[in-house]
Specification:
Structural class: alpha/beta
Number of helices: 12
Number of strands: 13
Oligomer: single chain
Number of domains: 2
CATH class of the largest domain: Alpha Beta
CATH topology of the largest domain: Rossmann fold
Low-confidence stretches: 296-301
Strand order of the largest sheet: 5-6-7-3-8-9
Amino acid sequence: MGGIAIEARGLTKRYRDVVAVDDLSFAIRQGAVTGFLGPNGAGKTTTLRMVLGLARPSAGDATVEGKRYTELEDPARTVGANLEVAGAHPGRSGRNHLLSLAAMAGLPASRVDEVLRMVELDGKPANRRAGKYSLGMRQRLGLAATLLGDPRVLILDEPANGLDPQGIRWLRDFLRSMASEGRTVLVSSHVLAEVAQTVDDVVVIHRGRLVDQGPVARLTAGGSVKVRVADSDKLVSALSAAGLDASPLPDGALSVATPDAAQVGEVAFAAGVPLHELTPTATSLEEAFLALTADAPAPVEEPPA
């Protein structure tokens, strides 16, 4: 742990007049869950396809454990990826779908039953035709496919789509368990509230360019302080004199534009205003994301590779 598992350097992809990814550089550390975020059309899927050798960069390169995907000696055991919801033949059972993938990768058939248990698709669901699977079951089947080679790196594109709240919680716990084993997880997702509870780091892109990367705790640090008092006007005046802006909230409390709750408490004490509530409020990942991508254009479809 502590090294770099995935790295992009100056990654660029052009489709005629469209620049889908524009001089993008980032590094994903080993043993962590990293959220890959951006508005629709930001270039996330195109970037992941280039990392996996499914699309050729117009410039720059991407590596997994220091090598381009096409140069990996044992790709199935190095990286597992799921960019589409389980592309299994609808007439084939989930188990048979995985058996065919294992055979192509030179993996033992016994591994199929192991991964089916891991994603809780063993038993009757494993023998059901994939065409009868719900979207959530297809997501689990796709996840099982990524795990066949027991890879050190997982790359997942919108794995929470189609999952109910229980399934999303299961996915969160599962991804965290993968990281606790020292694996690297790169996950693209629109479910920002869930991402905030799951990931260690984030990479945020906008219009194909990097806008921020780092620990999720840094992006959500700061925020404001919620304070409730009997005499709001007196506290607002005292806060203003201390250089702090306060605005009313719908529930009658005040929101003070500072992350320092102690400072707000000291101002209230000095002004002789009893406090009924003093609550630090961190910036949510959604708020941070929207601020970073505030000038995002209307969503567009990414061109095919």
